[in-house]
Amino acid sequence: MVIKKEAQSNFIQELCKYYMEFLKDGFKSNRFPKRYIRLNEKNYKIGIDLSKYEKFNTFIKKLVNKDTNFQNPITIKKGEYSVKLNNTAQDLLKKLVKKIDEKDIEKIISLANKTIKEFSISHRNKPDEAYDQIVDIIKKDLIKIIIQPISEKMEPLIGSQSNFEVESLWTVEQNISELILDPLVEGIPSIFNDILADKKVKPKDQIAELFNKKDISNRLLNYFESVQVKDLYYDLQDIVNSRKNLDKKEIYLYFSEIEVEKKRFPLFYTQIEVKEFSSESKFEISFSNELFVNKNAIKYSFDVLKKDQKLVEIFNEERKIYISEQENLSNRLNEIINTIVPKLRLEGSIDLTNTNVQIAKSINFVLSNNCSICVFDKSDEALINDFEDILSKIAEGEDSEIVELFKSIIADFLMNEPEVINETLEDTWDGMSVNERLNYTSPIPLNPEQLKILKSLNNEKCKYVVVEGPPGTGKSHTISAIAFEYVLNGKSILILSDTREALDVVENKINETLNKVRGKNPLQNPILRLGKMGNTYNKILAKSSIDNIRTFHRAQKNGIEEVHKDIKDISDVINDRVKIETDHYQYIDKAKFEEFFEIQKLVNPDDLFIDPISLKECVDKLNLKDHDENLNLNSFIDSLHSIEEIEDLIENFKDNWSGSKDIKNFISYQEHLEIINLYTKQSNSNFKSLQFFKNASLKGINKLKSIMDEYKEMSSGFLGTMFKGDRIQHLSDQAKKSVGIEKNVNLKLDDDKINSVLQEYEILKDLCKKQDFDKICKIIVRSGKSDAIKDLCEKSFRYLNFFKILELDNPNQKNLSINPKNIDSIFENVFAQIEFEKKEAIKKYYEMEAFFSNSFNIKERFDYTTLMKKLQSLYTSKMTNILDERIINFYDSNRNNAITLSKIIRSKQKFPKNQFSKLKGAFPCIISSVRDFAEYIQLDKDMFDLIIIDEASQVSIAQAFPALIRAKKILVLGDKKQFSNLQSYQAATLVNNARLNDLRKVFKKNISSESDALTRLETFNVKTSILDFFQSIANYDTRLKKHFRGYPEHIEYCSKTFYNSDLQAIRMRVKPISEVIKFEYLENFSEEDGNYNKKEAEIIIKHLIKLKEKKSKQSVGVITPFSDQQKYLTTQISKHADRDYFFDELKLKIMTFDTCQGEERQIVFYSMVACNKRNKLNTIFPVDLSKKDLEETGDKKAQRLNVGFSRVQETMHIIHSRPLDKIDGEIGNALRFIKNLSSEEKLPSKKELDPNSPMEVKVLEWFRKTNFYLENKKNVELKAQFEIGKYLKQLDADYSHPSFVTDFLVIYSTEDGPKQVIIEYDGLKDHFDNQELITDANFDEFYTTAHYEREKALETYGYNFIRLNKFNTADDPVKFLDKKLKEVFSKKEKLNLSQYKILESVSKSKQGEEKFCERCNEQKSLNEFRDKTLRTGIGVVCRSCKGISGPAPKGKIQKDANKFKKNKVKYKLEEGNTYQISYVNASGWASKRQITVKSIDQKFVKAYDSITHENRTFRKDRIKDSKKV
User: For the whole model, what pTM was predicted?
Assistant: First the structure.
């Protein structure tokens, strides 16, 4: 359907008016404007009429006339602005004083006289003790007889003027009595002593002089004349408490007021921020730069004028005034007042330059210059301005991009269907490799839900994303992750919310992440926070902040390449290791299992003679892998089975080897054959020539060589061998004899033959290194033919390593029935006795067992969690580098603009369009309130790549529409089962329906009258949250399910009742249930009227005191159904002496079920108030939820239950004064459900173990025997039947873990907090012995890469795994489990080396050891900058860049002032003891600490520090005082 532009404009114009009017007055049913002066609301003090404080009222009026106006903060101190009793009260007092009866005074004098005399006898020797007791007795009667009659009549007048903290009736009575008795108190010792001394004086006369009517009357009148009954400090304290307790409220200063029909309205107003400094008893007030004109009140006045006098007047002044832009603010306001006065026909005038009280009035109106301080709804002025801007553009017929974009958004909703990418994204996710899903780019850990959200935002077709986030499911974590993603990718992001708390949490999470790599001195991170009452711009761009950022950035810039390299290296390692581990799963199929089961039928457990682990250890020990690639279990079995083939080898050994015939000697024999084998490869000769010498030996060969040398010398002369026959014969006989030559030798004929054989023996001798040459010769001579010798060598070669392993492997010698002392026992090994087929089946069994073992039991499983933490830390370094570089470039390149922008922000004005892109470049992540951002950011399209709206259920569509125009993409997060927008919730139905009808008429006339379009139009209702609105046009929507805040028991009720038990609590409880959920029932106490319970309040305060006594730092909240109880608790705690500790250290916040959304506390006390005689809980909570559709309707009573009972992190402490079984309605059901969860759990017993899993008993027994358990019994808890399948299912709803697998959870409590590990028995024995458990239908549930991925995802939540199975527990399961437990629980998180280098460089820069060269951009030693020509001696540019040669001059070297001084060690500490010490650190800073000593060496004490809650090292000589606790 084509809609004309004019028609679209008409509808948009009406829609903008509809939203704008709602933002102005909230569609209240009142006929008068909503902003009027009220002093009380819901029993809370919400306004201070400053006419009661004339001095301060005048001070504020004077501020208007000052040049600085409201630009500087002001201080209000206790007692500085106070009020005395009025004249009426003073007159009444005078009358009451005159009525004091002399007889009453006489009674007290007589009592005093009697009392002093009695005590002079009873306390003769203890006068000091007597004095105090005498005064107490007199005071009691004085109050009763004289003071109470006066105070009781004065109390109503005092109370009407007084702050409750200043004077209670009891306080007044005590103060007056002490004042009247003061002379008597001074005189009692003298009277007492006179009586003891028996002086002749009358005590009664002495008393009468000190206690008479005249003095009493004067003292009473003087007291009440000077007493301060009202103090602005206390009134302001009430106002601050009210703002805390009421939802979506701020504090405003109202300046000048107009009274219309008995209602007082401020004429001007500005927001103020009130900070309390309770330790100094003062408040500091800061003023916004925006002063608003209350145009609605003026319009209302003109309406009354029109109605009563038929006069029509118009007021055209601007609604907003920027205070800092006014040269003379009082003149500007006078101009506005002077415009109003004649139009309202007022008599008189108002001149704001005159600070006296001024009034101008008529029959209908009263105008004054009075001021007030009031609590009121948060302002939507900036959003109203946006709508006015849009209306202005439409009215002027301007064809702007903004109007067109507005039209596009509306058309998307009314006419078009969104392109939903959920299925496409899921398909993409499923198509990703495990590596891609596990190895992601983020500085913080993410789960699949959060990763998919990031994926959706990267999809070009996805513009609108909706994320539902039930309580505690990590919405802020998700927002932080998205912010990091956008910063790393050079994109801009604006984060909005209507709750300050939600924005604080996001900002804190971002800063916490960045500060992890900043070192010990975190910087002011360049994350821009914008708001009416404060921003971070000036803090970031302060000279000191920029210098710190610059120092850090310089150091980081030097190491950033190494950081990038580390990112790549660690990422590659993760990818490689994930691939290696997942590859183990890909070859497993059902056929392999079936084949294994078939083999099992052929092989009995008794047939598995060989211990593969022992065999492998021997192979590894001998380092034989490289020597023989085929050396494995199967070849070992083959050798055993075919051992008979080396019988001749063994026989030869027995024949030719001297000594015992054992395996050790046989190996030695084989090593000699190895030499012979080498000889055959190097020589062309055969063994026959060597056998020519029948008795060769090293000695014989050497002798023969000598003989042959002599023969050679003899035959070398002129006559040769002539005439030497006898000598030759002699040498020939010696040659024969030396080596055992059998035939007769004639050297004349045999010398060549003998020399040839000698050469062969020389070759053989050279090959002998460690072996016995004589034995080798013996083997050769006795082994017969050459072929026989070669055959022996070949067999020996094949079996040498076999026998080496066997000789070392004692366990398998026994298993195989082999006696290592008898070589013949080798023929009796068990494998030599079995058939070939059986032998092959056993080999196959071992082979398949090894396959499955390698698949399921990767020997060295890599530590995914630790590596990912390192990677995330490196990404954080990368991100800080990006942020720091951007802010430094902005600061250096835009100095003038930076100062201008600072002034613009301070004056709450919009950034100029031409400057905003630079600002956005410097601050890619901006955080602001949904009501405030439009104050600064121009209304223009596509200002940000992404805008996020958090707590979107609390943001009305009217508030959010201006934000949509500024974004390329929108992501909203919220939960429709928590509270909606309060302002829209309170909008009067009649008023809203009337405005909607007007909108509907325009729509039908200009857009469409079709029923479907009209139905969609209903969603534009101001009561619709932006969360609900976007669910209709979202391209991607999802729900976060993982609850991170509390334990499962804390969220169980909300999950079951509101989320169909869909929430998945990630934190496992590591403490007794009694510490997690507590119920405290109070009975037998007096009950008060009203919805408050004093006894419950007292109990809560007692618990707070106990927390202080323990020096607890846990955050604490109090939640109650009734605002009366909230106010009473706030009042009582505000008066308590320890209030500062409660609010500052315990972060105490007192809330109702209506005001606690977005909050979380470690300890939450619930004060239910209801008692036996009074129960109004069903006015707050629903009576019956069973008839409500919680999916469709936003029932506020039901939402209270969901919000209120989901705030707890550690301890839920419910205090009730009515028995739970007598509390009806849904609140009763909720309390009883939670109470049932708190029942004490049993310790694991055999009954709790799975009867179908025999391995569970074994694993439990192994665990009990581990040293880890025995050494840490007190700190270790073991949970049997831990449902890992349930937790894996959280990651994938379709996953079903095998029911027979046994699982345990180990919880180990440490000083750093609890740690946990899951022990999972893979149950391979069950798989192998029970084939029927595996079918085609369920096979995919067994050991797949999906299983692996889920396991790694769980590890990121802190659930480390120890996987047990038949293979890794085969040898020593207790030892293996003990080793794994110690490994898992000893891991520590560390920064990467490159990050340490950066921090070290920062440290050196700060300490002056190194400096950054501005020219070569390198960090260098300070000596490299020394230059004698400079006054300071140190340059900005290094010597190399200046071209200065030669060695750098060295500075003076100071002796180390921090060197350890043994003579300064004064105290001897002992291990295991706790001490209170005074410690001076290296910087000379002294502090008191309580430490528990862990270990001691010569210089240092390692101890647990109770202040920092960590193990630290203290140097002995710096301990200046020590006391054992």
Answer: 0.69
